Amino acid sequence: MSNTYQYMKQRASKCAEKIRNQQAVHVVSHIDADGLTSAGIICRALERANIEYSVQFVKQLDEMIITKIADQNPELVIFTDLGSGMLETIENCGINAIVSDHHHPKGDTEFHLNPHLFGANGSSELSGSGTTYILASQMGDNTDLADLAIVGAVGDLQHVKKGKLTGLNREILAEGVKINTLSCARDITLFGKQTRPVFKLLQFASDPYIPGLTGNEDGCIEFLAGMDLPLGGDERWRRWIDLEREEKQKIVSALFQHSLRAGVEPYKIERLVGEVYTLLNEREGTEMRDASEYSTLLNATARYDHAEVGLAVCMGDREQAYESARRLLSEHRQNLVQGLLFVKENGVIQLNNLQYFDAGSSIRETIVGIIAGMSTSIVDNRNLPIIAFADTDDGVKVSARATQDLIRKGINLSRALSQTCEEIGGSGGGHDIAAGATIPSILKEEFITRLDEIIGAQISSKRGS
Ligand code: C5P
Ligand code: C5P
Ligand code: C5P
Ligand code: ZN
C-alpha cells in the first residue's frame, strides 16, 4: 500500500470515529455518476453501522444551499464528491461536517478527506467515490464496495488520461480484483459492450469520432457485413460480449484500418483500445456489469432530477429502480446525440486561447459539460480548450473541458474559472481538465473575454517558467 493511501486512511479513521458517535447523519452529494456512487458507498456503510441517514443531491454547493442545510440543524453532515471548495462557508454556517471530496480544495479542516491534501491528483488518481470508499473502509469491512468506487472513477473519466486507472484508483481496483468483485482487461473502449448490438457500438463512437461510421447506422451495418462474420444482420444482432476473441480482434483491426484510411490521427485511433472494468457480481448483459455503462446509467438518472433512482440502483435495487433507470437512459442517449449534433451544426467560436459554443436552451445545463467533453473529438482545433454555455433558470451554466496536452501547456481550468468568477461574478471550480461555473446572464460576454485572457496568461507564465 502506498504512503498516500496510508495517510489518507489515517485521516479517514478520524472521520469514521466522528461518524460512529452519531445517531443520524445527513448525506449531501453531487448529481452525477461519481456523486451517486459516493452516496451509495457511504449509505451502505452507514446502514451496516446501524446509523440512520437521509440523502440530498445538489448540482453544486453554494452559500444558499449551505445555509438551508444549516437551518435544519443536522447532527452531522457528510458531503461527498463536493464541499472542498466551500469549507469556509460550511464552517461559518456552524455545520458539524465531514467533507469527502476530490475537487480542488480551498483550505483544509480536521475532518476533510481529499487526495489533493496528500499529494495525489484528484482529477486523475482518485474520484469522490474512491475518497468515500477510503472513508467507508474505516467504518467497517466495506471492501465489497470497491466496485462502486471504480464506477465513480470511470464516470469522471479518470481512466482516460493513461488508458487505464492509475494511482489510488489502481490500489482500490486491486482490492476489488482480490475479492473477485472486479476484473480489468484490455478491450475495445466503445460504449455498450454489454447491452448494445455490435453495430450500435460503432454508430455511437464519439472518442474517437470515426468518419463514415459515427452517427451512420447504415454505414456501420454495411461495414460489419463486409467482414464476413456471423454478427446478426437481419436476425438478432449479437453484442460485443457474445463474440469470440478472434471475432473481436478482427473487428478491432478493421476499425484501425478504416480510421487510418479516413485520416484519423493515430493517437486518437489508439483510444479505441484501453483497459475496461467489469463488475463480476452483476448479471452479464446488464449495464451494471460494465463500469462505463453503469456510470452512464447513473448519469441518466441524476442529471434529469432523478438521483434517487440512481442511488437505489447503487444500493442494489435491480427491479423497479433499474427499470426506471433504463428508461431514463434511452432518453439520455438521445439527448447526447442531439447535443453533439448541435455542436457539429452550429460550430464553435474561436478566441485566442479558447473556443466556445452557446447552447442557449438547446442543451440541458446538467449535460452540457458531457457534450463539451464529447465535442473535443469533433472540433477541428484540438489546441484550444472548449467552453460551453447553457441557459439555466437563474443565469448561465458554464462548462469547460481541456486535454492532457493543454494541461502540460499550463492550463488549469479550475483556477481559470475561479479567478474569472472572482473578478467578474459567479461561482465556479472543479478540476484542471474539467471545470464549471454559474454566472449571471448579462456577464456572459465579459466573462468569455476575461477567461480568454486568463487562460492566455496561464500558458505564457508556464512558457516563461
Ligand atoms: O464534479 P466532477 O468531479 O464529478 O466532474 C468531473 C468531470 O470531469 C466529469 O464530467 C468528467 O467527464 C470530466 N473529465 C473529463 N476528462 C477527464 C477527466 C474528467 O472530461 N480526463
Ligand atoms: O437493450 P436495449 O433495449 O437498449 O436494446 C436496443 C436494441 O438492441 C433493441 O432493439 C434490441 O432488440 C437490440 N438488441 C439486439 N441484440 C441484442 C441486444 C439488443 O438486437 N443481443
Ligand atoms: O458541470 P460540469 O460537468 O461542467 O462540471 C465540471 C466540474 O466543475 C465538476 O467537477 C463540477 O463539480 C465543477 N463545477 C463547479 N462549480 C460549478 C459548476 C461545476 O465547481 N458552478
Ligand atoms: Zn467527482
Give an account of the 3D structure:
The protein is an alpha/beta fold and 465 residues long. The protein folds into three domains: 3-180, inorganic pyrophosphatase (n-terminal core) (Alpha-Beta Complex), CATH 3.90.1640; 198-337, no CATH class; 347-464, Roll (Diaminopimelate Epimerase, Chain A, domain 1), CATH 3.10.310. The chain contains 18 helices and 13 strands. The chain has helices at residues 3-20, 33-48, 63-71, 87-92, 128-137, 146-155, 167-178, 198-203, 217-225, 245-261, 266-269, 291-302, 307-314, 320-346, 368-375, 404-408, 413-424, 444-464; strands spanning 24-30, 52-58, 77-80, 97-100, 112-113, 182-188, 273-279, 349-350, 355-358, 386-392, 395-401, 427-430, 434-439. Strands 8-9-10-11-13-12 form a six-stranded mixed sheet, sandwiched between helices. Helix 12 packs across helix 14 and helix 14 (320-346) crosses helix 15. The longest helix is centred in the last third of the chain and has 27 residues, at 320-346. The chain is globular, with a radius of gyration of 22 Å. It binds cytidine-5'-monophosphate (C5P) (3 copies) and zinc ion. Residues 25-152 form the DDH domain. Pfam families: DHH, DHH_CID, DHHA1. GO terms for molecular function: exonuclease activity; nucleic acid binding. It comes from Methanosalsum zhilinae (strain DSM 4017 / NBRC 107636 / OCM 62 / WeN5).
